[in-house]
Amino acid sequence: MSYERERYIAELAVQRATILTQKVFNEKAKGTVSKDDKSPVTIGDFGAQALIIQAIRKNFPNDEIVAEEEASTLREDKALSAEIWRLVKDIKLDDAESNEVLGGTLPSEEAMLDIIDEGKSAGGAKGRIWALDPIDGTKGFLRGGQYAVCLGLLEDGDVKVGAIGCPNLPVDDAATISSSIGVDQNSGAGNGVLFSAIKGLGSATRPLTTGALAESKPISMRPVPDISQAVFCEGVEAGHSSQGDNAAVAQRLGITNPSVRLDSQAKYCSIARGAGDIYLRLPVKKDYQEKIWDHAAGDLIVREAGGQVTDIYGQTLDFSKGRTLAANKGVVAAPKAIQSEVIGAVKHRLPNLLGLQSDGLPVDEDTLALVRFRFPPFLNLSREPCHRLYLRALQKNARGLRSAGCHALGDAQLDRMRVSHFERDELLTRVLRLFSDRRWLDSSPVTNTNQTQDADMAFRYSHY
User: Fold this and answer.
1) Is 204 found in the same domain as 59?
2) Do 161 and 234 share a domain, yes or no?
3) More exposed terminus of the chain, fewer Cβ within 10 Å: N or C?
4) Secondary structure (3-state) at 162
């Protein structure tokens, strides 16, 4: 399947939505409300979501949609709903044919509210699911900086299509970025870019217009022969990415230039076309889970431009777990040639990022990943204490034991339990996948007595 139709609709839908968002962007009052997590939402978020979901429903009626906003606030606040409807009903592309492809004008305010609420899919590993962020970087949007309208198509958990509209980025792909790009922006002449990608077919940009799609051209990440000269991007908000850890990683890489801070997936887009090189989003909270709509489109655009996108462990982003990247922590994006070097620098910050100490370690997947991959502070950990940490994870996870139906078993009985008995538990399954050869694990006891330990060790650690 080529996905050319999906990209065309995604690009047109994003382009139409940016007409609305820029109209709101240029207003002093943006109709801001707060969600339960205190993050701001503007009338632009609601309006753009309505327009994009309408386009998806018109062209792909059976697809699911994971979107950031929902309409309950608007149903309670009639004045706000009416304000958004007055905005939405007048938004259209100048090219009549393109506008009709997206479904034309919504018939009523109630239809607008209904369409906003069609973004409630739980996501997952099966089927076609669109991940939508109508305004990514809302705080940047409010302060007059960078923001993006983002749409990605996942099929069976794999990102196939991505489209991102960045109204305040320069059209010129050769333009460099500096610290000023995150503030005091406008959509005047020379600004406004639409990025897109299809898996396996590369990434491209084209100027944003108010009508039909403009001509596109391919983009790629630039080579970085000297990593100390790389430009790295990070978020403006300290609550979204650990800026101190980002700086420590940059220092370890020998990068002396200051970071470029900008909001939204504009960071992915900037490095994809060579305006920057490295994007770091290191976790500020150990239990925080990234949302799929914040990364799906940008992840594909960078990868198709010749880059790699992973979490802080070097694992690819897994979009099959629902509405969040539950299997990943943080984001690291860079050209393929230097990704391993960047990840190596990130490894040295992992204990700090995860709040770990060398004593009194919690038994969870983060600690075990550090042990498994020999990250600091476990570079020279011997087999025996390494083995004990794995055993503690298996024996002390009460939920895992209950799921295996052995909550009342004693040590002697646990010695006879097999790894396969624990596969229904998500944490333990993730722990077990750290091993490269599951066949030996499936034939081994969960706990090891002195009689079995020597034989088991030869299998369990032969790949170290």
Assistant:
1) yes
2) no
3) N
4) strand
